[in-house]
Amino acid sequence: MSNDRVLDRDRTALVVIDVQEAFRKAIDGFDEVARQTGILIQGARALDIPIVVTEQYPRGLGDTVPEVAEHLNGVPRLEKTVFSAARAEGFDLGGRDQALVCGMESHVCVNQTVQDLLAAGITVHVAEDAVSSRTAANRSAGLHKMEQSGAIVSSVETALFELLGEAGTPEFKTVQGLVK
Fold first, then answer.
1. Which of 53, 101, 138, 168 is within CB 3.0–4.6 Å of 107 for a Cys-Cys bond?
2. CA-to-CA distance for 122 and 114, rounded, in angstroms?
3. What is the rounded CA–CA span in Å between residue 60 and residue 21?
């Protein structure tokens, strides 16, 4: 029984978009989004979920912030100048047909990535508490557009518990510790 409305750890890839240093002072709620992104990455690693990370023009916007990068040991960063991560050279979900998306900015790179993934037949879940934009209005507009286009707006905790599927496992204890 397959249900696209619920994330499945064997079908999901995590897509982390442009959580970079230059956005720190410009983005509404940046520190919380970076913290939530770190939780998602740690959860994905505990559940053996592939992770794709992009950086928009890192020479100008800087590297992935340390509080996110510290959880990415061995995960390469795809440098891009296109807004949609799905159009970046080397972007690959590894055959997964569900994507859990987070990052910057809700109304630009996150939105365009989600639109391209949806057009490619990928089921997309967006972690609402792990995306933002320079303004609350743009964050909201991006989330609304993605949802209207068919993406499922969720949260970090909802996504991680869907991916877990059950309690009583070593992964459950890890994830429970991350979200507490």
1. 138
2. 9
3. 10
**Tokens for 145?**
């557009």
User: CA 129, CA 125: separation in Å to the nearest integer?
Assistant: 12
* The two three-digit tokens of residue 14, written as one number: 């995590």
Give the rounded distance of the alpha carbon of 167 from its chain centre. Answer: 24
Q: Please name which of 166, 168, 158 lies closest in space to residue 40, comparing C-alpha atoms.
A: 158
CB atoms inside a 10 Å sphere around CB 3: 9
The pLDDT of 147-161, averaged and rounded, is 98
pLDDT digits (tens, 9 = 90+) for 105-139: 999 999 999 999 999 999 999 999 999 999 999 99
**Residue reference for tokens 């939530």:** 36
Q: Do residues 139 and 22 touch, judged by C-beta distance below 8 A?
A: no
Which residues are annotated as catalytic? 18, 80, 109
Q: Alpha helices of the chain — where are they, by DSSP H?
A: 30-46, 58-61, 66-69, 111-119, 136-149, 156-164, 170-179
- Phi and psi dihedrals of 64, rounded to 5? -55, 135
Which residue in this structure is represented by tokens 């055959």?
Answer: 95
- What distance in Å separates the CA atoms of residue 136 and residue 164, rounded to the nearest whole number? 31
User: Model pTM?
Assistant: 0.97
